[in-house]
Design brief:
Largest sheet: 5 strands, parallel
Radius of gyration: 28 Å
Strand order of the largest sheet: 2-3-4-1-5
Helix content: 40-55%
Strand content: 5-15%
Distance between the termini: 76 Å
């Protein structure tokens, strides 16, 4: 066979993101079924977990666009939707529980719209059962019958749940005339909202039961993806995701065989979650893992489609691509120099192809692959810093420690290099003092895949073993993917790197490596000093109290008088948070303690004014109790949101 049968200008491996890849047709035609896909499709698993670029969105898009034989509802929250959920709270409930209710509302509306449409389209020849008519009337009465953006639906649902103003007349329940009237009936916002939601969900279940067809067709499949778009690593985002997990599990159980939920969550987000019911999701989890053989098959499938030819592996890796690169088989060469995920494979293959075309080659040559390797390494090092920038904003400076040296680094060597920039890093990132130690840096670099560690006869990376790097493990290896970008060309490079990371007078500068310039830094609320965490919890409590004031039926003059001191505490906490360091725990503790005292004083004053059961007074008590727990060390998901107990 001649090389001209497979010209490089027709070769195409796909786009970087699943949505564009699907719209171009390549993902639809060349989708690679995996264990995670099969588990989600069949209902064995409902929680698909994977690193960025591992194919979560590809599975989601394929299921949503015809890969699932039943009806699907796709939910992809954006910044605006995430802001609504983060700001949603209910007095008397923890943040996790409150946010689970707004998610349950969204799921219930999707289920209601589905069952009423199903009754009309499939059971239209029969008399519509009364529960289905009631559900249709509910949707009409609450403006949920038409199409609406997720943000609009969330805002509407949040407002009605907080004010107990859902119209439930369709189910024979009179809605509260006003929030004031509802408050007299029941003191807790959370209790009122939960009761209204229970009524709606009972109405959905009754409609499914009346049709009695859930076992004859596939259930409605609700898919939730792109949570990284709304993730901020603060306590409210933590509650947003844990609330989603709780709501999805509840919906799947509540609607039984009629509705299923599948959530697609990035691994670093899922690993950061810390909540009491976390162990109840183990059997729901499926982690996306790709082997070199599976990625090799993915490359072949996409090459076949783009070239419209029944290629086999020997032809792809012998005629279209060279069979070997510097004595190593080409598939093995590419796999070793990238992370084991489809996006990396697609980008690397595409870069090889583009390099060949730019150089006027009809097929990919060994020199094209070698040139592409350099560029790909620079891309991936920059991408790694951006991927973990929220949790580790100092990565670009730490990477510079490995420049122009050997890819094998002894722990003591790394510690000596790190000590030269530690003071500068602490000055630039005072809130991250707990992470800026030699052991913490090694653990972080291993966890994100940058470093491997020698164990026995081989080098192990984070994806190869469930065990983290151990303190006694001494031999560290930079992943081959990142070596060209750092100029780690030999096993042992000798002296500590100089050049881009070192000024003329010998002082080490922070973050001047060219390939990582332009990476922005953002603050994070987890993995930072205790002082910063305390202040973040206080700020969250103040913001929740102020939002409760906005919904309050208290006299305007009293609202203004009571909310003023809370604004002052919030402003002071924000100023202090911007400059806090590890040595400021005492100042932060004192400020949080003052906030607790203020909340209790304001609560007593509101009660003395004749409003002992007002939601604002109850919220102040809830937040004071929650902050007391924080001061005692109980930092975790949703702690600062208060509870009724």
């Amino acid at each position: 066979m001649q090389h001209a049968q497979w010209p490089v200008d027709r070769l195409f491996f796909g786009r970087d993101d699943a949505e564009t890849d699907f719209s171009s047709g390549l993902l639809r035609r060349g989708f690679q079924p995996t264990h995670a896909y099969e588990a989600a499709l069949t209902g064995r698993k409902s929680l698909v977990i994977g690193r960025k670029g591992s194919g979560k969105s590809a599975i989601c898009a394929y299921l949503a666009e015809g890969g699932y034989p039943g009806r699907t509802a796709l939910i992809t929250p954006d910044d605006a939707a995430g802001d609504v959920i983060r700001r949603f709270e209910l007095q008397g409930l923890t943040a996790d529980t409150a946010k689970s209710l707004i998610w349950r509302y969204i799921f219930a509306v999707h289920a209601a719209r589905y069952v009423t449409d199903h009754a009309r389209l499939v059971h239209g020849g029969l008399r519509t059962p009364a529960p289905v008519r009631a559900l249709r009337n509910f949707l009409d009465a609450n403006d949920e019958a038409g199409d609406a953006k997720l943000t609009e639906r969330l805002r509407r649902g949040a407002r009605r749940l907080q004010s107990a103003s859902l119209s439930l007349k369709a189910f024979g329940v009179e809605a509260a005339a006003s929030a004031e009237g509802a408050a007299r009936e029941d003191f807790s916002e959370g209790t009122r909202a939960a009761r209204q939601l229970d009524t709606l969900e009972a109405g959905v279940r009754a409609a499914f039961a009346a049709l009695d067809c859930a076992g004859t067709h596939e259930p409605l499949l609700i898919l939730v993806d792109r949570l990284e778009q709304v993730w901020r690593l603060d306590s409210e985002s933590h509650a947003l995701v844990t609330g989603l997990l709780l709501a999805a599990k509840y919906a799947t159980g509540s609607y039984q065989q009629a509705v299923r939920c599948v959530l697609f969550v990035r691994a670093d987000i899922y690993d950061s979650l810390n909540f009491a019911d976390g162990d109840k999701f183990r059997s729901d989890e499926v982690h996306i893992q790709w082997t070199p053989a599976a990625l090799k098959d993915l490359a072949l499938t996409r090459a076949r489609i783009s070239l419209d030819s029944p290629l086999d592996h020997e032809q792809l890796w012998g005629f279209v691509f060279p069979s070997a690169i510097r004595g190593e088989s080409t598939p093995d060469y590419l796999a070793r120099r990238s992370l084991a995920r489809p996006r990396d494979a697609i980008q690397f293959l595409t870069l090889c192809r583009d390099t060949a075309e730019l150089r006027g080659h009809s097929t990919v040559h060994e020199s094209d692959v070698l040139e592409a390797t350099e560029q790909f390494s620079r891309w991936k090092l920059s991408d790694l810093a951006k991927e973990y920038n929220v949790g580790f904003p100092f990565l670009r400076s730490v990477f510079a420690l490995f420049e122009n040296s050997g890819y094998e680094v002894r722990r003591q060597e790394l510690e000596e290099r790190f000590e030269r920039i530690r003071e500068a890093l602490l000055e630039s990132h005072p809130s991250y003092s707990e992470q800026l130690t030699p052991q913490a840096i090694v653990e972080a670099l291993f966890g994100i895949g940058f470093l491997g560690v020698r164990r026995g006869d081989g080098v192990v990376h984070a994806g190869d073993s469930p065990l983290p790097v151990q303190a006694y493990e001494n031999e560290l290896h930079v992943h081959p993917c990142f070596r060209p970008a750092l100029n780690c060309r030999t096993r042992r490079g000798g002296n500590t790197p100089s050049g881009p990371g070192e000024d003329a007078d010998g002082r080490v500068s922070v973050g001047h490596t060219d390939f990582l310039r332009g990476v922005t830094t953002t603050d994070a609320a987890f993995g930072v000093s205790r002082a910063a965490r305390l202040l973040d919890e206080l700020r969250g409590s103040c913001e929740r109290v102020l939002r409760q004031f906005e919904r309050s039926a208290l006299p305007t003059e009293l609202q203004y008088e009571m909310s003023g001191p809370v604004h002052a505490v919030l402003g002071h906490a924000t100023l202090l948070r911007d400059t806090v360091g590890t040595a400021d725990t005492g100042r932060a503790t004192l400020h949080v303690s003052s906030g607790v005292s203020l909340f209790r004083v304001l609560g007593r004053q509101i009660a003395d004014q004749g409003f002992p059961d007002d939601p604002v007074r109850l919220r102040l008590d809830d937040e004071a109790r929650a902050l007391d727990r924080v001061l005692g060390g109980a930092l975790g998901g949703g702690v600062g949101s208060g509870s009724s107990g």
